[in-house]
Batch of 2 targets.
Target 1
Amino acid sequence: MTSQTFFPVSQDHCKDFGKISVPKRLLFGPGPSNAHPDVLKALALPPVGHLDPFYVGLMSEVQELLRYAWQTDNRLTLPMSGTGSAAMEATIANSVEPGDKVLVAVKGYFGHRLVDMAGRYKAEVQTIDKKWGEAFTLDEIEAGLIKFRPAILAMVHAETSTGVCQPMKGIGDLCKKYDCLLLLDTVTSLGGVELFIDEWGVDLAYSCSQKGLSCPPGLGPFTISPRAEAKLNSRNGKVPNWYLDVSLLNKYWGSDRVYHHTAPVNMNFAIREALRLLSEEGLENSWNRHLDNAQMLWEGLENLGIELVVDKPLRLPTLTTVLIPNGVDGKAFASHLLNNHAIEIGVGLGDLAGKVWRIGLMGYNSTSKNVDKILNIFETELPKF
Ligand SMILES: Cc1ncc(COP(=O)(O)O)c(C=O)c1O
């Protein structure tokens, strides 16, 4: 019992709220995508303590499964408690020291986010830039490395704002040649697009749970190579972000199992199941499924007379950018699909705002049945706009 009789914030605002009920949606936007039903079941399991021996065993399984999904042997591979942006910030916070030269290859919205973050950690940030909808050639990357001689080259593999997949072969070798680390955003590629962290010479990478892994948002997979670990270990000062400092986090995720923060245990149940499903399907099968369904979507849209933004060889199988036809109100069409058909598609960001729709087919959602649904809805509804 409280002795206080007056509550400054009244209960009146809350007491009529009913039990939560969430509308069913088909999430064909840039993410989140629909979670796999088995992943949702795992999420709803009763929590255990974050130092419970069962949970500690599960943590190791999540790490092993993540190494498979990323094709890496990196010891320090773990899901950050937070969304993709937290893992993104972790790569920067742990690798950048004040005054370090960081070169960001910007070809869309998330490249700009990397620029912003690296600047906040007091890097000397330089950029090379490409028109939204295009990718960098090896020659352009090499010219940037020669010109700026950075300590870190940061770039986005799968640019969700444009639907471009950056060809990666050879970039890691260039980074070794010019003695810099390679930092890669794999938020919209992990699980859905060919990705070989070790073979490609990627030193720092991050991703998310809510796209190709068919899991809800809430975790940000993170990995760091021995080369980048060496840079971390020779820092002059502490990592300027306590929560994301992997040397501290490794005391929990590594053999010591010392408390760092209260892990979101249910999210880790969920990602463990999501990654298990991916390994059961097999990476190559998953990549092929995403590509086959994307190709079906591209062909179907083009048959309807709809133009795609990205040239075919650079198209991202997980996310397709579609030019809004002249005279059509893109936002109104997207709202119509959501409100009347329970289908979410994305609208444009940054340079492509108002010009494109973004259609995601990621993880559990990448099926031929879903492609048919999208094509049917475009065929029947678009002429009304
Ligand atoms: C390429 C890319 N990088 C980073 C992010 C940030 O991830 P999150 O929104 O999970 O924080 C996103 C989100 O969509 C993304 O598409």
Target 2
Amino acid sequence: MIISVSSGKGGTGKTTVATSIAVSIANSVYIDCDVEEPNGHILLKPEYTSVTPYKKLLPEIDTEKCTLCNKCVEVCEFNALMNAGNEIILFDELCHSCGACAYFCPEKCITEVGKVMGYVRKGKSTTGDVEFIDGILNIGEETATPLIKEVKKQTIPGKINIVDSPPGTACSMVETVRESDFCILVTESSPFGLSDLKLAIDVLKIINVPFGVVINKYDERYKATEEYLKENDILLLSKIGIDKKIAEDYSRGIIPVLKSEKIRKDMIEIVEKINSLINSKQKV
Ligand code: SF4
Ligand code: SF4
């Protein structure tokens, strides 16, 4: 099973919820796909068993053999190649590694070479019985989705894979959550939280991923989120109250469930709700 954890905006406590669920349930894997800014490792403190470079294939042109025929520029769907008159220039960040340029080059002077974009790390959490996987993108790399795809390939069948998504609704979020069995959207009690939650809900509806909402830093004076969920018949999975102690623990890299039996029970309840929802849909 794959449960992704996402949020319309940063700072809602998405990673706290994702790691808390992972350490609260048995048979779990935590997968951090927030490859531009992974921080699950700060809370789960893994001992790494492998760190594997992830390479993107990029075309390399032998300028001695190149006749500047322009064929590669014409076949590149992504405008990653430009004929500058005296040489063919590659824009790395636009290249999707499709290989078309090398295939169609009449002089066969293009070879595909691997460029390290980042790393996939695997290990075991030392703060709970959790398998740990994350991706970390090299600074300066502009496209996160190829590495996210690689990290997602590491999901472990037969286990409950908790996939921590990048915040927002950009393509990195879509890539992370799109094959999930269920997505937990973490929001907070504020107008900004609600506004970004609505955007994330729109995305999940378009890509047809079932979802429910956790209101973190719950403030009972702010009713708009609950009203919106009720009006739109959206599943409210849990409300986690504002707690100074949770914030203090988090700032020290301590997962709240390690200190609170109540939060642990809340996390287990969230997964039980999701499980029964998925099972009831499969029976229909
Ligand atoms: S297709 Fe090959 S020969 Fe033609 S411009 Fe591109 S690299 Fe040069
Ligand atoms: S590999 Fe594909 S995307 Fe990259 S430059 Fe060649 S044709 Fe364009």
